[in-house]
Amino acid sequence: MGVGVSIFFLTLGAILRFAIEPDVFGDSVHMDVIGLIFMIVGGAGIVLSLVLAPRRGHTSEDRLMHRENRPPEI
């Protein structure tokens, strides 16, 4: 899950938690709890994305740039 998807979940959770009445679907569905769960998932996704980002390997574009910067082989 990337940072963009995490921000989406965080925003959706905040809307469900604070902007919608908790009893809009009756007593069986608690929108504020569902919103809180989405906010926790979004926050955890952002933290994990930022922690694991430096561990990602080089992309093919990075490898191509390194090849172009090498001196020509004789």
Which descriptors would you attach to this protein?
mainly alpha; single chain; 74 residues
Q: What would you note in describing this structure?
A:
This protein has about 70 residues and is an all-alpha fold. It has one domain (about 5-70). It contains 3 helices and no strands. It has helices at about 5-20, 30-50, 60-70. The radius of gyration is 21 Å and the shape is rod-shaped. The protein starts with a helix and ends in a 5-residue tail after the last helix. The mean pLDDT is about 80.
The helix count comes to: 3
Instruction: Tell me the span between the first and last alpha carbons.
Output: 45 Å
Strand pairing plus helix content: what structural class?
mainly alpha
Share of residues in helices: 55-70%
Mean pLDDT: 81
Element order, helices and strands? HHH
Number of strands: 0
In terms of DSSP E residues, the strand content is under 5%
- Return the domain count: 1
Tell me the overall shape. rod-shaped
Sheet with most strands: none
Q: Taking Cα atoms only, what radius of gyration do you get, to the nearest Å?
A: 21 Å
Question: Poorly predicted ranges (pLDDT <50, ≥5 residues)?
Answer: none
Keywords: Membrane, Transmembrane, Transmembrane helix
Organism: Nonomuraea cavernae
Protein name: DUF6458 domain-containing protein
Domain DUF6458: 1-54
